[in-house]
Amino acid sequence: MIKVLLHKSFSALMALLVLFSTVSFTIEKHFCGDVLVDVSMFADAEKCEMEALEVLLKKTCCKDEIDVFKGQDELTVSTFEDLDFEKQQFLAAFTYSYIDCFASLPKQTIPHKDYSPPNLVTDIQVLDQVFII
After folding, report:
1. Is residue 25 packed enough to be buried (19+ CB in 10 Å), middle (13-18) or exposed (0-12)?
2. 54 pLDDT exceeds 80?
3. What pLDDT does residue 52 have?
4. Torsion angle, CA of 122/126/128/133, rounded to 10 degrees?
5. What's the average model confidence in pLDDT over 32-42?
6. Can you tell me whether residue 109 is helix, strand or coil?
7. Backbone phi and psi for residue 40, each to the nearest 5 degrees, phi listed first
8. CA 62, CA 83: separation in Å to the nearest integer?
């Protein structure tokens, strides 16, 4: 029970680790002067009213900042054959010894499991007057 639970939770954790290491996203910020007007993660940041006036006046007080967080583009997949011979030998020996630790014992059969002893009518030790001293 606990082994299955640990296996499932470890698998989910590894899947989330791969997911978060490969995800890329951008954060867009719009400043009007030194004041932060809008921050957006998935869409364009909203512009302020000064942006429309800048076109007429040709003066810029607004600026946009874009922060890009890049994840991994490629995952490296290495095989058993990529390892050198000593590491292959160590890994094979470790795996064999680790699996051998958890080999289950054969199920023992109890031949007299359903045997019920006969009812005692008299105490034989008292009848024969044989006692362990």
Report:
1. exposed
2. no
3. 63
4. 140
5. 85
6. coil
7. -135, 145
8. 55
Sort residue 5 into left (φ over 0), alpha (ψ -120 to 50) or beta.
Answer: alpha
Q: How far is CA 39 from CA 23, 50, 62, 99, in A?
A: 20, 17, 14, 53
Which residue's structure tokens are 């002067």? 33
Residue 54: how many CB atoms within 10 A of its CB? 15
Instruction: Please report the pLDDT score of residue 53 as a whole number.
Output: 66
Contact between residue 64 and residue 104 where contact means Cβ atoms under 8 Å apart: no
Which tokens hold the place of 2?
């606990």
129, exposed or middle or buried, with CB in 10 Å at 0-12, 13-18, 19+? exposed
Residue 10 structure tokens: 């470890």
